[in-house]
Structures are given as structure tokens and as C-alpha cells.
Amino acid sequence: MTPFRLFGGLAVAFGILLLVTVVANQATSSPGGHNLLPLTPVALLSVLTGIGLLLQRKWAAVLFAVILGGTGLWLGIMSIMRVPMPWLILNVAFACILLVPSAVVIRRLSQLNRT
After folding, report:
1. Burial level of 16, CB count in 10 A (0-12/13-18/19+)?
2. Whole domain around residue 99: which residue ranges?
3. Is the pTM of this model over 0.85?
């Protein structure tokens, strides 16, 4: 199993789980509760990118790497600037975890021949 298929499956699973969460929240939301409807585009983008990765499309790999890399860099830099020390270590560790799949995809991008 290539890392593209692994990350694609995880992205599709995350997107479907997020969509189920949004639908369940809309069905049971009370006035004044949390509205998760703005997360719908994130879930759909995750499912779309995951399907593209499962089909080993280069555009999906680039999109996946840019989104995770950007999120990881943003989380790491902003945590260093604004988060107090005990939580800083957890945030930077989480940022590094987000950067690992991005680095793996970028390193293996040449294996994809499809656009």
C-alpha cells in the first residue's frame, strides 16, 4: 500500500466522520448551541482530496501537502509566539505530526504520473 492510498483513506474517513458530526449536530442542535455547519466545506474538501489520493492524482497530493504543511507551520509558529510554556510543547509536537505526512507526500511526489 502506497502512502498516497493510506493518506487518502484517512482523509476520506476524516471527511465522512466530520460530515456525520455536522449532520448529527444540525439534527440535535438547540438554540444557542454550537453550529458546526461552517465545517461542511472542510469535510467535503477532505473527502475530495482523499478520493484524489486514493486514485493517485498529483493535484490531490499537492493539495494535501500544502494544506497539512501550511497548517503545521502556522500552528508551530503561532504557538511559539502566543502559547505559554506547558502547552507550547504539545502544540509544537502536534505541528510536527502534521508536517510528517506533508513531507512524505512531497518526497514521493515523483512516483505519481497522473495529473
Report:
1. middle
2. 3-111
3. yes
